[in-house]
Amino acid sequence: xxxxxxxxxxxxxxxxxxxxxxxxxxxxxxxxxxxxxxxxxxxxxxxxxxxxxxxxxxxxxxxxxxxxxxxxxxxxxxxxxxxxxxxxxxxxxxxxxxxxxxxxxxxxxxxxxxxxxxxxxxxxxxxxxxxxxxxxxxxxxxxxxxxxxxxxxxxxxxxxxxxxxxxxxxxxxxxxxxxxxxxxxxxxxxxxxxxxxxxxxxxxxxxxxxxxxxxxxxxxxxxxxxxx
Length: 228
Prior knowledge:
The chain contains seven helices and nine strands. It is α/β, with parallel strands linked by helices.
């Protein structure tokens, strides 16, 4: 059954990429997959393994939401730093949460920028293992990676900065935003990279547009908890 599910997931991803990017986009993506072992500047600097583009079908997951997931692609750390720099408040009292954290690059960035805590949520065990190795290698404190489906994750009640890099489609996003609304966080920001489900946040009733960092390679938007 597991192999059959993997084949179905691969087929869905191929159709999705073809629909979004066309033949040229599929060819470009495939070429990047074949060169995914090459370390980028971030990994060369820190001695980590956080880069590459990895299709979700390569990993075994037991979540029924796997069919709604996107590929893993490392975040550009400079873009994330610019987004975080726009936020108000003391980062040391906030918890950074990356939904679909993959290999944990954003958690490293968040820790270095002074967040009190950084939590990664990931449902692919292989990616969780890699992320934990990266965190251990750098000796980071206050950083944890949770092996979980994002729809089962309970957000803490502390000040929050939630990050997403197009990790899943609308079916999952609606459940996540409902869970996020249940948090008692006084100050809450959502940084959404490549925001394909922006309408879900706009229609949430408790989030409002805050802004966007300049000169980002991807479309990155920021929401915050609406001021009452």
